[in-house]
Amino acid sequence: MQGQLITTMSKTNLVTSKVDSLITSILASSKIPRPGIINIEPVSNLCQLKCPLCPTGVQLLDYPPKIMSLEIFKAILDKVPFISLLELYRSGEPFLNPDLFAMIRLAYDRNIEVVVSSHFSFSKPDDFFEDIATSGLEKLFVSLDGASQETYSHYRVGGDYDLVMANIKKLIEAKKRLNRTKPEIIWQFLVNKFNEHEITSAQKIAKDLNIALDIRPIDLDDELPDVTLGQTIEERMTDWLPANESYIAERYRGERHFPLFPGVCKDLFTRIIVTVDGKVMPCCMVWDHGNVFGDLLADSFDDIWYSRKYLDARSRFLIEDYRPQIQSICFSCNNFGSAPSLRYKLNLLLVVFRKSLSLRVKKCLAKLVAR
Ligand SMILES: C[S@@+](CC[C@H](N)C(=O)[O-])C[C@H]1O[C@@H](n2cnc3c(N)ncnc32)[C@H](O)[C@@H]1O
Ligand code: SF4
Ligand code: SF4
User: Fold this and answer.
1) How many other C-beta atoms are found inside a 10 Å radius of the C-beta of residue 131?
2) Partners of 115 in the beta sheet?
3) I need a labelling partner for 122 at 20 to 30 A (CA). Which of 30, 144, 229, 256 fits?
4) How, if at all, do strands 279-281 and 294-295 pair?
């Protein structure tokens, strides 16, 4: 009886290990599909505000401010016809690019959903808000961390709470006037120790305005693998974290631990990040231009996505003690650990193949209906 149990257990282990190595070999190879999400920075290292934990805000980046041209934007978009979602913001204030509306329109005309995040703390004429309402923009995140100037300005240094509120109202009015439902306006509220007592007020204001409120825990830059801030993480935790644990990111609760996040680094498998110059970064957390993974203006998308550098970086998270042929920032990044459990790998496989799976299901359903 015991012998039978041991045989059954070892058979199960054998099957599990075969499934594991099959999934690993798919995820670590050029069999994975192209991603559906792209993040493009329309401006780089350029902003009117000075948010203390933003590398742009505290001028930590050693490259000059830059604005992306419409030509470069178009050249990038031409290389990624399979993309369905564009995040059009990264290291700076996107509305500082005078071609932003043209960029949104270009993507919209190609059936790409566009999302922008802005501090929205600037004076603009009425037609600016009408331009937003008619641009084709799907979602606009407005970074407004507080429900009064006093609390808001602790993080958004140089920002004007009343101006941001007035701008949100102008956009709501412009949408009504032009009978538009888009863009969805999302008030993004990063919780810190100065504004946590205003969450209820923010919820009420957001409800009265009929806009969404996205209450998020603040990140303290320990997740940025190539940025060094003046302060220690302990000092930043003391300076910024709220008292209410439920508004604190999991990694700042209890003992400090590495890796910082559970599971696999999904960014390497599901999205691509493109700088103002068309260079490819492995994720939004990497800022040093020395850590690029490719150049989308010089090479084809596939040459980059399936390059040795990408394959090595992905393998680092799937295979224990993986030895790369080409080193990259991902090998010194403490955000994720190696060789995750089969559960995480299965989940990643589903995420990576979701789009092609749903297309197949749709085709099958269409065939069935046609019969
Ligand atoms: C670098 S900003 C660029 C876009 C724009 N300037 C803005 O602030 O919305 C990109 C995103 O990072 C968010 N962000 C800035 N500092 C953050 C922090 N310490 N923790 C989490 N998100 C942060 C911003 O709110 C914004 O949604
Ligand atoms: S507004 Fe955005 S880009 Fe500007 S400093 Fe703050 S987080 Fe950085
Ligand atoms: S492993 Fe680290 S550096 Fe590499 S893509 Fe993931 S988070 Fe970014």
Assistant:
1) 17
2) 87, 139
3) 229
4) antiparallel
